[in-house]
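Saturday, quiet lab. Running sequence design on the structure tokens for the scaffold JK sent over.
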């Protein structure tokens, strides 16, 4: 009878999530699907996440041995299947082969697991989503398309390709096909629903589930290990007013404005120090720019695991979020970084023009004109000159906002209802 109950409990509740870049908290980056997966497990779902064992941040095979085709890892009830994919060092043709190798590897690895009831194919790149649809057809499972970035529109708006390019046309065709084939579409940007309605997609199949934050991570206060790189940097600048950025150093992040703002403040406010934590294709150029401008008030640090982020943020005096002005932001954004910032209870300065300006809405800090280093420097100075009580009030506002709107438990319940 016990086995019969278990079988009944799992009917319709075996979910596969295909996300090439899904991560566990011991790695640096977003943990959206692990966090949502934990919430679904609590509600009786069986969750399997298929991800690449080649880590995009470190450019190393971290989660899978080179001799293995895939490896399983069970963490808090969520099963990760780490696939061996081809390696790469930069955003060139080798990264494309890495994407395709993910698609081919998952087709063979999937045979080793119990048949799914639901498959969620999550972009950024198209191969994971296409493989999700193909497997859903094979196993007669429900197919859900999750859009974490609007492709190819984001690439076009960033200038990476032209709308008339054959690659853009193929991606537009892929996007339309996936939307038509999906039973439901999950979007992270609050206004992305309108984007797809404009494309002729039925509004009734589009659901908004933004990124969230696991607030339990902010309840467990563990001392920062002083021997680590970031531990030493925090100790070195303990007496400074620390402006901290965590996350990717890429074109879309627009961190040039942070270096230019640091150059403005280097002599004007010597007690202010910038600490930029993370990695990306623009990092070396940013380092060179900081050196050429004489920014002795800027320190770069390697990425830290997601599980350690809250420890780092506790030492910040103000947190920095930058986005390059691009057209696609009219559909809004859903940043893992901002949710972590808000949960930390620290004031935030955001250099971005985004339709859902949650920093202003939450009264958690200041939003300044994007790409304007003088405006960013003035924003930082304004918070620098605030009283401790004023800064704490901004932090409390942010924490209350994220608890209300981006608690992963609430978002997990929304996903369960959708499924």
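Result came back. Writing it out in full:
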């Amino acid at each position: 009878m016990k086995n019969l109950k278990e079988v009944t409990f799992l009917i319709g509740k075996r979910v596969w999530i295909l996300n090439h870049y899904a991560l566990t908290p011991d790695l640096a980056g977003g943990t959206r699907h692990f966090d949502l997966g934990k919430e679904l497990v609590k509600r009786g779902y069986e969750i399997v996440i298929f991800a690449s064992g080649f880590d995009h941040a470190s450019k190393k095979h971290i989660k899978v041995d080179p001799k293995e085709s895939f490896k399983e890892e069970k963490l808090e009830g969520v099963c990760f299947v780490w696939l061996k994919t081809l390696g790469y060092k930069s955003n060139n043709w080798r990264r494309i082969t890495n994407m395709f190798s993910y698609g081919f590897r998952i087709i063979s690895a999937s045979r080793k697991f119990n048949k799914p009831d639901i498959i969620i194919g999550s972009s950024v790149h198209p191969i994971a989503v296409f493989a999700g649809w193909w497997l859903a057809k094979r196993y007669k499972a429900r197919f859900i398309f999750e859009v974490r970035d609007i492709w190819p529109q984001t690439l076009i708006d960033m200038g990476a390709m032209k709308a008339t390019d054959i690659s853009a046309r193929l991606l537009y065709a892929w996007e339309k096909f996936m939307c038509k084939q999906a039973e439901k579409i999950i979007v992270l940007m609050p206004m992305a629903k309108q984007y797809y309605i404009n494309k002729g997609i039925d509004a009734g199949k589009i659901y908004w589930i933004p990124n969230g934050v696991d607030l339990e991570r902010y309840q467990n206060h563990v001392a920062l290990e002083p021997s680590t790189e970031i531990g030493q940097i925090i100790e070195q600048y303990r007496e400074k007013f620390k402006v901290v950025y965590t996350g990717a150093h890429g074109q879309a992040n627009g961190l040039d404005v942070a270096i230019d703002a640091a150059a403005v403040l280097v002599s004007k406010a010597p007690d202010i120090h910038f600490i930029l934590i993370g990695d990306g294709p623009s990092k070396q150029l940013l380092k060179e720019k900081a050196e050429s401008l004489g920014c002795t008030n800027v320190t770069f640090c390697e990425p830290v695991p997601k599980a350690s982020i809250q420890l780092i943020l506790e030492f910040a005096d103000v947190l920095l979020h930058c986005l390059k002005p691009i057209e696609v932001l009219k559909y809004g954004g859903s940043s893992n970084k901002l949710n972590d910032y808000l949960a930390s209870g620290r004031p935030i300065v955001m250099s971005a023009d985004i339709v859902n300006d949650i920093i202003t809405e939450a009264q958690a800090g200041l939003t300044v004109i994007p790409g304007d280093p003088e405006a960013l420097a003035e924003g930082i100075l304004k918070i620098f000159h605030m009283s401790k009580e004023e800064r704490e009030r901004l932090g409390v506002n942010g924490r209350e906002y994220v608890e209300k709107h981006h608690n992963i438990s609430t978002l997990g319940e929304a996903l369960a209802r959708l499924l």
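Notes for JK: The radius of gyration is 22 Å. The chain has two domains: 2-215+407-418, 216-405. Ask whether to fix the surface positions before the next round.
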